[in-house]
Amino acid sequence: MHVDHLTFVAGPEGLKVEAARLGTKLGVQLKDGGFHPRFGTRNHILPLTGQHYIEVVEVLDHPAADKAIYGQAVRARSKLGGGWMGWSVAVDELAPYEKRLNRESVPGSRHFPDGRLLEWHQIGIKGLIADPQLPYFIHWESPDNLEPIQLEGVIRLDTVEISGSRDRVEDWLGEPIPDQIEGINFEFTSPNGHPGINAVILDTPEKGFVRI
DSSP assignment, residue 174? Predict the structure, then answer.
């Protein structure tokens, strides 16, 4: 299993302010990721070591955001004040997950500020909305050099703290979750209110360990 990325939704002050705030905490500057025309969202990207990344995303006043499940998920989290929305697992094939979830994956794309187009398919956002501890699944379709994971960063993803049930997430994934995956510690606590990502701990060159 490859943990692809984590999604953090911008608060009421918007994407640029949220990205700058996180960058200050971590001692880095996030990259402008561009616009998701199919979802009505846009993001900033923080590449990490180990081919992982964090995206900070905001929903736009755009018709696609009202129609796309992903746009709806971002809007819902934004209305709660922002914060961690979920995590994504990259897979080689989506067909097994489409069969298991009994629905088709949806296409996604992102226009970089320089005009390049990144494309993928994803599935599982409905599951994330219903139960935010669950990851969604993504399959990249563009050339490797366009994928965010190819932008090697200097910050290491150390720990993901999840409020929820390890058994529930394992059932969703169809495979066990060890305490550590690709060097990332996964810590599950019993749900206390809303399930989902409670916090993420990052190992930074300048600030040491930072919990967000």
Answer: T
**Helix or strand or coil: residue 153?**
coil
Report how far residue 190's alpha carbon sits from residue 74's, in angstroms, rounded to the nearest whole number: 24
Give the pLDDT mean for 118-127. Answer: 96
**How many CA atoms does the CB half-sphere of 128 hold within 13 Å?**
24
Q: Are strands 117-123 and 41-47 parallel, antiparallel or unpaired?
A: unpaired
Cα–Cα dist 14/11, whole Å: 6
Residue range 18-38, pLDDT digits in tens: 999 999 999 999 999 999 999
Hey, what amino acid is at 40?
G
Residues 6+ apart with CB under 8 A from 121: 94, 105, 106, 107, 108, 138, 139, 141
Other CB atoms within a 10 A radius of the CB of residue 20 amount to: 15
Instruction: Please name the CATH architecture into which domain 2-153 falls.
Output: Roll (3.10)
Dump pLDDT digits (tens) for 54-111: 999 999 999 999 999 999 999 999 999 999 999 999 999 999 999 999 999 999 998 8
47-71 burial, b at 16+ Cβ within 10 Å, e below that, comes to bbeebbbbbbbbbbebebbeebbbb
CA–CA separation, 212 and 7 (whole Å): 12
User: Percent helix, strand and coil across the chain, each rounded to 5?
Assistant: 25, 40, 35
Any bridge partners for residue 197, and if so which?
162
The helix/strand/coil state of 147 is coil
